[in-house]
Each structure stands twice: as structure tokens, then as C-alpha cells.
Amino acid sequence: MTFTFPRRGRQLAPGQRSELTIVDLHGNRQVIFTADEVIEAPNWSPDGQTLVFNAGGRLFRIPTAGGTVEPIDTGHLADLNNDHVLSPDGSTIYVSSDDGHLYAVPFAGGTPRRVSNTHDTPFHYYLHGISPDGATLAYVAVEQREGARQVNVFTIPSTGGPDRRLTDLTMPNDGPEYSPDGRWIYFNSELAATQPGHAQIFRMNAVDGSGVEQLTSDEYVNWFPHLSPDAQQIVFLSYPPGTLRHPADKNVLLRLMSPDGEDQRVLASFFGGQGTINVNSWAPDSRRLAYVAYPMA
Where exactly are the transmembrane stretches of this chain (predicted)? Predict the structure, then answer.
């Protein structure tokens, strides 16, 4: 079917398309929707029936079996980036807006409620994770500290409240996400990098950021660790060596590993990157996940 999305931000090259894809743990893929515009960052609803994704600064939903795309009413928020998570009960979507703040929006659509705080100095929120009980959000903040740009991991109550800093590093950090038992936050960081951009996967205590452990150590640039609901596997995005940050339009890998970093293997390879799997997209059964590829004609 044909569906026209709002155009905002990056555009696809002539002949390029977005492919919303479901892959199982054996690497079998099913493309459930294609678009001539950029669509990004699918989330799987807790009931297993729906995928939520971003396009042109807006949110949309589609049945996991494919079918009709529907816009989600986000009120006055028209410039959402691709960092959004669903509450464990499926009633709320937490979103990141380009105004730098976090909001809660009813899954059915409706008036947004701001969650984040106003700061005296530049502080831009980018959401990535939610605790298993739905009480706490994990995010990274872009700050200007002592004249330098820093990106660190924080948490905040999902109902609003004080920000809690978990990392205080000068090197970039991103993609924080809770383990299903709530004990750990997994994230990617250049903490151990010997050259700019060489991000790897780490985990730390979810309460205070202590006990940092490095889980990957290879030539790839590794981003966005997402834990399966059954806590048995992590999927993450691997860029070619030398990649800086997490750009679009690269030959990338989806890789799997155990929660302690063992048993690494490639699940899929394709043309993608930014927007492919920025947020957790595991199915509730832990047997499938969703991603977006951006093949050229």
C-alpha cells in the first residue's frame, strides 16, 4: 500500500527505500512494510500486536503482520526524534522531542505530559530505556560543561522528578537500556577507545553507575545494546571499523550475544545504520525482533 509520511531531516537517495523488517533468531526475515521516505526505530508493543515507529518527526503504528499504517496523535509535539520507548503495560509511549525534553504520550494518542526538567545550562535529553516496573527512564544528556560537549547517562522517574547522573565521563556514551531484572543498565561508550569513535558495549549498576563491565572488545564500532525480554540475549548494531558515531547508509551487522558478552554471532547484515535499531525492538516472545534497512535500488 502507499502511505505518504511527512518529510523532515534526512532524506533517502533516489531509488532508496525503507524496509521495516522482522527477523527471527535463525536469520529468517520478513519485510512487512516499505516506504519511499525515512522511517526509523521500531518498538514492539507489549501485547505483540503492533510496531511503533518514527517518520518525519511523528509516530506511527502498524500491525506486526503488516497492514494499515496509522498516525499516533502526539498533541503539540511535531518534532520527535527516533528515541522512544513503551511502558511495560503498553499504555504510554515516552518520547524525545527536538525541544530537548522528554514527554509521556498515551499509546492511543492524546495530550503529552512533560517528564524532564529545565536546566540552567544546556542540557538536551535523548531517551533510550525504561525500567521493568515502568518507574524510571534511562537517557543520555548532551551537556556543555567547561566549554566542552559531553554525553552522559542519567535516569529520571517516569512521572517526573530529579535527574540522577550515572556516568561522568568526557568520552561519549549512548543507548542506555535496563536489563529485564532491573539490575543493570547496558550502554555503548568510548570509555576504552584508543581512537575516536570506537564505541563498545558496557554495563553498569542501574542504581548508581558502579561496577562498569566491558562486554565487547573488537574491531567493530558497536552501538545500541537491546536485551531480550527473557534476558537470554542482547542484540546490538555493529558498524565497520573507523566509523564515527552512528551514521546512516553503511553496511552494518545485527549481532547477538549473551548478557555477559559471550557467544557472539551475526544475525543479519544489510545497508542501514541510523534509524535501524535505535530503540529496543524485541518481540515479547524473545524469538523475533524488528529493524529498518535502507537498501539502494
Answer: none
